[in-house]
Amino acid sequence: MTKSHKKQQPTNIKSLPKTPTGITGLDEITSGGIPQGRPTLICGEAGCGKTLMSLEFIVRGAMIFNEPGVFMAFEEKTDELAMNVASLGFNLYELQEQKKVKLDHVHIDRSEIEETGEYDLEGLFIRLGHAIDSIGAKRVVLDTLENLFSGLSNEIVLRAELRRLFTFLKNKGVTAIITGEKGDGGSLTRQGLEEYVSDCVILLDHRVINQISTRRLRVVKYRGSQHGTNEYPFLIDEDGISVLPVTSLGLEKAVSSKRISSGIPALDYMLGGQGFFEGSSILVSGTAGTGKTSISAYFAAETCKQKKRCLYFAFEESPNQIIRNMRSINIDLQPYVNSGLLRFHASRPTLYGLEMHLVAIYKLIQQFKPDTIILDPITNLITVGSVSEVKSMLVRLIDFLQNEQITVMFTALSLNTVVNEQTDEGVSSLVDTWMLVRDIEHNGERNRGLYIMKSRGMKHSNQVREFIITDKGLDLVDVYLGPEGVLTGSAREAQQLKERTGVALRDFAVSRKDKEITRKRTMLESKISNLQAEFESVEEELNRIYYEDELKQQIMDKNRDEITKMRRGVKEDIPVKKKSNGRRSNKL
Amino acid sequence: MAEKDQSSLSEDNYLNEQEQQMYHLRLFVTGASPNSSRAITNLKYICETHLKGNYDLEIVDVYQQPLIVEREQIIALPMLIKKAPGMERRLIGDMSNTSKVLKGLGLQTEN
């Protein structure tokens, strides 16, 4: 949403020019920054970060955008200011020497001043004008202008002069931030500064809920621009302020069809043979001690094995504890930590509020740029927020991660209740893949069963697998499904043994049958050869008789012919013919 | 805050006590603006009346010397700084309230 807006700006002539603040996240909420050349009001209670935010505006402007800035402090002395932000890595003295920043402390003390008649604030104007001109400032901060009201008593003059001041700032063409203390009741500032600053008003808030304080920011008003209207939590840490625009309304994210292995081949096989989708969200839920952390550690190790980066958020155990424990199941995460592929971030959930956790996660992700992240376990976050809050936080986190194409694995502890499958922080409907590790108690022992409750966009097994944790690592085994029901653990082993015995017995029986057949065959074959021999001798005998007959016939024919010849005295050259010829000759 | 002009009250006592001390005064003005002109006139009159011959008044036009504004922590103008005697005091305004000016200069206590 914000990106498209930025792109539109150059073409859209009438759109409001903006000055980027350089504060992480704030420019996104305001679609590009605060109105250029106009004053912006930042108001809030004491200690909510007004001064820091405005100072960061100046420093970032000088450092990133090369826009010099004037910081006029009505509260703190310049040395105090410089010291306060030194911890954020801002060197105000250096910036001042480089003429990029000008700090000016305005000291007003009522007790030192006697008002003797009509006056104006021309001195302030001269000061400010000189400061702006001396470094060519583009940005100005007045922190906190309302201190004038405590120093000077003529309110009519002050109000008139304030109005003049804002006109003066606009004429100077500087982008100004004015801070103001939150007033009593509904008013934004104590002195009603909002009536002078009408272009952009940002309200900062610092609330303590359940003993956990969260700073929040809201753009109350922004003329001529669209802006996020929600309350956004923000974080002050060693890098300054970061605001997290945590709700993205669109669902138009890029999706990847690449797959990423879970590190457990048998589990990949259950997920259509290839594992999870890249950039998807995976929930592993289960009761205590079912091996959720082990699954995530495997996933982390697999990510690192592929030379990708993994960020592991541990809310329960310390990194060293996890590394030690995982060694017992044959994964050593230490080398990956050493090589910088794996980073642990362990924090107690109660360290700060939910939103702060989200901001912290967001920041670390931006910094480390991981390919996968693991949150172990999300259940503990419940201690710092209600179920619906945790859910909304996770929605936003998943949103963000999917935009960044980061695969995330959550683990969640489900309590031993009847409906535990439905209520895993209510996120089960959001995630792409949901695995449930469950105790199967049977026959005096407890075994783990792993189900894939859902896995969007891929073929996945509907079968329960027994989930085994051994010294060698994790594995999934088919449970025994038989007439006696689902068997796991030693019952499965026993059943398998029984089956193996059965197979051996059957094999023996089969081989005995085979032998008998062979024997039968040999017997038959010998019988056949006997018969053949018998047949041959009979045949020979028959042949012999036939031959003798033939011979006898021939001889007889011959003899008859000779006799006939002798009787008739027929010349000898007539060949001797067979019976038929003889007969024909007879006719002749 | 209805102030009455009480400049004539018991001024002699103070003058006698503080006669020996020289008054160093610096008046910062913004060019010839109405407030500035009035301040100069009023102050000169007060000084002539109460501190005759015992003061040293410097009038500074801050438009000419903008750097002085930051150094002297000036916001409201016109402004008078009493450098001596005693503690530094700052008076702002067009010096039309003579009683307050005198109080600020330490020439008059509350009665």
Automatic annotation (TrEMBL), chain A:
The lineage of its organism: Bacteria, Pseudomonadati, Bacteroidota, Sphingobacteriia, Sphingobacteriales. Residues 566-576 have a biased composition (Basic and acidic residues). Keywords: Coiled coil, Hydrolase, Kinase, Phosphoprotein, Repeat, Transferase. This is non-specific serine/threonine protein kinase. Its EC number is 2.7.11.1. SUPFAM superfamilies: P-loop containing nucleoside triphosphate hydrolases. Residues 577-588 have a biased composition (Basic residues). Residues 521-548 form a coiled coil. GO terms for molecular function: ATP binding; hydrolase activity; protein serine/threonine kinase activity. Residues 1-24, 566-588 are annotated as: Disordered. Residues 17-257, 258-490 form the KaiC domain. It holds the Pfam family ATPase. The keyword Kinase applies.
UniProtKB/TrEMBL annotation, chain B:
SMART domains: KaiB. It comes from Mucilaginibacter lappiensis. This is Circadian clock protein KaiB. GO terms for biological process: rhythmic process. InterPro entries: KaiB-like (IPR039022), KaiB_domain (IPR011649), Thioredoxin-like_sf (IPR036249). Residues 26-107 form the KaiB domain. CDD domains: KaiB_like (cd02978).
